[in-house]
Amino acid sequence: MVTTEPAHLDVVIVGAGLSGIGAAYRLGTEHPGRSYAILEARDAIGGTWDLFRYPGVRSDSDMFTLGYPFEPWREAESIADGPSILDYVRRTAATHGIDRHIRFRTKVLGADWSTRDQRWTLTLSDGGTLTCGFLYSCAGYYDYERGHEPEFPGVASYEGRVVHPQFWPADLDYAGKRVVVIGSGATAVTIVPSMAGTAAHVTMLQRSPTWISPVPGRDKVADRIRELLPAGLAHRIVRAKNIAFTTGFHQFCRRFPGTARKLLTGLAKRALEDERAVREHFTPTYDPWDQRLCAIPDADLFKAINAGRASVVTDHVDTFVPEGIRLRSGRVLAADVVVTATGLRLLALGGIAPGVDGRTVDLSEQFVWRGAMITGIPNFAVCIGYTNASWTLRADLTSRLVCKVLDYLDREGFSSAVPRPDRVMARKPLLDLTSGYVQRSIDAFPRQGDRGPWRVRQNYLLDSVQTLRGDVGEQLAGTRARAFQLAR
Fold first, then answer.
1. Which residues does residue 380 pair with via DSSP β-bridges, in sequence order?
2. pLDDT tens figures, 235-290
3. Which pTM value belongs to this model?
4. Which InterPro entries match (predicted)?
5. What is the Cα–Cα distance from 194 to 164, expressed in whole angstroms?
6. Does residue 390 contact residue 66 with C-beta atoms inside 8 Å?
7. Of 415, 394, 358, nearest in space to 466 by CA
8. Which candidate, 5, 96, 93, 10, places its Cα nearest to that of 50?
9. Residue 1 has pLDDT above 60, yes or no
10. What are the CA-CA distances from residue 151 to residues 148, 319, 437 (Å)?
11. What local confidence, expressed as pLDDT, does residue 345 receive?
C-alpha cells in the first residue's frame, strides 16, 4: 500500500491482477523516474486468481508462458491451480516492490481527458479525484461483478441449490450429493473432475460439444531443462519452446482443420475409451480454434468419466423441476446442486467509459492500434491478451509497447499521442472467436481493422518482432505512415 497519495501521477494502471503487476514491473524498470500507482477496486492483489474460488480453478495455459518472462515459474506443475498462481502474482509484486504502489478499494468511476491541460482526470469510488498523464487499463475484458446467467424456466420450483462459479459460496457442501454442471467450456471441464472426487456423481450438461484436448499436467522436458540449467535461463528456454509449440499448433488447426479434427478426436478416443461417447459428446460441428480450445491436464475429465464418477449429457434444458432438470428429450436429471457454468460477460475497459473534453467516446466507433491504443482517446492503452495462447504473452508486449510510446514522447518533447487511421478500413470484431460469450457483447468494444497495425493478430512471434525490434517513432510520426496525432 502506498504511504503517500499525490494528486497527480505520470501513469495510472487500472487493475492489480496478472496484467497490472506485469505492467508495473515494465514501467518501473524501463521508466524508473516516472510516478505511478495501480488502482485496484478490490482489497487484494491477483484479479481473476483472487476472485475465482470454484473447485479446481486452474490455468488454461502453461505457466511458463502465462507466467512473467522476468520471474521464473518454479513450481512442478505446468498447468497450475488458482492458489499457486495467486501466490506467484503476489510474490512477484512483493519481490519488485510493486505492492507499495497499489491503492486498494479504489475503483475508477470516470475518466476524462483534457486537451487544454493534457492530462486525465479520474473520478474515484472514494469520492476523490486523481489526475495523470497516461492511463493504462489492465482490468481485462470480463465483467467481474456479473456473470452470464440465462433465465431458466421453473428454477423457482427447484428444491436444490443453484450456484454460479463466479460467485462460489464458501459454505457449499456437495459431498455425497448429485451435481449437474450446465456448460462445456473451460470452467465446466475444470469443475466436473474436481467435484467428482467428493460428490456422489457429477453430470456435465451441454447444449453442444466443445473441443477438448488432454495435455500433460507436468512438462517433462521442462523438468529436465530446469534440472540442468539455472532458473532464469531454463525459464527462457522452456518459454520459447512452449511459445513455438502453441503458435505452431494454432496455425496447424487453422490451416488444416480437417486433419486437426481427426487428431483431437483421436486423442479423445484414446483417453475416453468410448468411441460412441466421443462422437456424441466431444466432436463439435465447428472447427478447432473457431472457439477457444479447452485443455484438460492429465485427461482428468476423461478419467472421471471412465471411473463412473462423472458423465456427459448433450441436450437442452426444458425446465427446472423440484428434483432437478427436465430436458427437451423428456429425461429428468436429478440434482441436489446445479452449477451454472454458463460463461462470463464481457465488459470493455473494465467498465471505464473514457471521455475527451467532457464527451464520452463511443468505443464501438474506434479502432485499436497494435492491440493496445485506441483511436479518439489520447494517452490511453488497454491490455488485451491472446485468445489462442497465454494472456500474458501479449500483455507483456503491450506493456513494453506502452513504455516505448512514453519514451518517444519524452525524447521528442510531446505530451500526448492519439492513434488515427491513415485510410478507410473494413471494421472487424476485436476478438475473432465465435464463442457465445464473445458474440453477446463484442459490439460494445472498439474494432480492429483489416491491415497493418490495426489488425489484432494472434501471433506472438510476429508481434514480438514488431514490438521489440520495430521503430515505434517511425510508426507514430514517420513520413511513410503517420499513424498518430501528436501534441506538445
1. 135
2. 999 999 999 999 999 999 999 999 999 999 999 999 998 899 999 999 999 999 88
3. 0.91
4. FAD-binding_MO (IPR051820), FAD/NAD-bd_sf (IPR036188), Flavin_mOase-like (IPR020946)
5. 16
6. yes
7. 394
8. 93
9. no
10. 10, 10, 16
11. 78
Q: What is the DSSP string of 306-350?
A: HTTSEEEEE--EEEEETTEEEETTS-EEE-SEEEE---EEE-GGG
By three-state DSSP, how is residue 135 classified? strand
Cβ(339)–Cβ(191) under 8 Å? yes
Q: Which amino acid is it at 312?
A: V
CA atoms within 13 Å, Cβ hemisphere of 327: 15
Q: Is 470 helix (H, G, I), strand (E, B) or coil?
A: coil
259: phi then psi, degrees, rounded to nearest 5: -65, -35
Q: Is the pLDDT of residue 163 over 60?
A: yes
CA–chain centroid gap for 194, Å, is: 22
Torsion region of 15: left, alpha or beta (phi above 0 gives left; psi -120 to 50 gives alpha): left
Torsions phi, psi for 163 (to 5 deg): -130, 150
Residue 296: is it exposed, middle or buried by C-beta count within 10 angstroms (0-12/13-18/19+)?
buried
CA gap 273, 324 in Å, rounded: 29
On the CB side of 6, CA atoms within 13 Å amount to: 13
**Look-up of cell digits 464520452:** 360
Say how far apart CA 106 and CA 39 lie, in whole Å.
6
Please identify which residue in the block is written with the cell numbers 468410448.
274
Calculate the alpha carbon distances from 50 to 86, 89, 366 in Å: 6, 10, 32
Nearest to 142 by CA among 294, 290, 304, 347: 347
The closest of 193, 146, 234, 190 to 54, measured between CA atoms, is: 190
The amino acid occupying position 34 is: R
440: pLDDT strictly greater than 90: no
- Grid cell listed for 380: 490511453
CB 371 within 8 A of CB 398: yes
Q: Which domains does the chain have, with CATH numbers?
A: 8-145+345-487 (3.50.50.60), 150-342 (3.50.50.60)
DSSP string covering 397-433: HHHHHHHHHHHHHHHHT-SEEEE--SS----B-SS--
| Three-state secondary-structure class, residue 425 | coil
Say whether pLDDT at 44 is over 80. Answer: yes
Q: Give the CA distances from residue 249 to residues 136, 209, 260, in Å, rounded to whole numbers and listed in that order.
A: 32, 21, 9
Instruction: Please give the helix or strand (H or E) that residue 264 lies within, else none.
Output: helix 257-272
CA distance 172 to 100: 35
What pLDDT does residue 168 have?
94
* Residue 421 contacts residue 475 (beta carbons within 8 Å): no
Instruction: Name the band, by pLDDT with cuts 50, 70 and 90, for residue 342.
Output: confident
Beta bridge partners of 206: 314
- pLDDT value, residue 435: 62
Q: Please count the residues of the chain.
A: 488
- Contact between residue 453 and residue 483 where contact means Cβ atoms under 8 Å apart: yes
Q: At residue 203, what are phi and psi to the nearest 5 degrees?
A: -115, 125
CB contact at 8 A, 31 and 403: yes
